[in-house]
Amino acid sequence: PNTMQKTLLITLLLTVTSLALKAQGPVTLGLSSHFTNFSTNDYFPPENWQIGVAKASLGVPLTEYLSFSPSFAYGKAKTFGSTEKNDFWDFELLSFQLNLTTTKLQPYITAGAGLSRFNAENYSSFSGGLGLNYWVTPKIALTAQTNYDGLPIM
């Protein structure tokens, strides 16, 4: 990762750590897959999508049903129909999840916005997805999630 990517990752970690310490409450640790759409013309046809690298997140519940959960992904990706893979990262600082239950196995929906970098260009992005928290202890949950990321670059 370059200096900008390292700075964003450190910022994410410091932000979430400070929120977790302030809350002194539970946290979620997550991994997700995400499907990135590299088109502004049509957001939902799968032929525009690229399966991206895994995305890591660390969430802090704000209320019983709402959590702040920024995430970061880094890897190689390509647009549909291309064979060339380029560096890709996605940093969602404004990401929230709405928990549908308060049980040990907790489904949720998520939405967010952030910054992405692909093919040496920066872009704003948005995402939505579904996930599941599994509360291992009252303070720590493991999260599995899948996201749709819109990255309007074409």
Describe the protein in words.
With 154 residues, the chain is mainly beta. 14% of the residues lie in helices and 55% in strands. Strands 1, 2, 3, 4, 5, 6, 7, 8 and 9 form a nine-stranded mixed β-sheet that branches. The protein is globular and about 45 Å long. The two termini are 25 Å apart.
Q: Helix and strand succession? A: HEEEEEEEEE
Structural category is mainly beta
Low-confidence stretches: none
Biggest sheet layout: 9 strands, mixed
Described by the principal axes of the CA atoms, the overall outline is globular
Strand content: over 45%
Oligomer: single chain
Q: Give the C-alpha Rg.
A: 16 Å
- Number of helical runs? 1
Mean of pLDDT: 75
> In total, how many beta strands?
9
Indicate the percent of residues in helices. Answer: 10-25%
- Distance, first to last CA: 25 Å
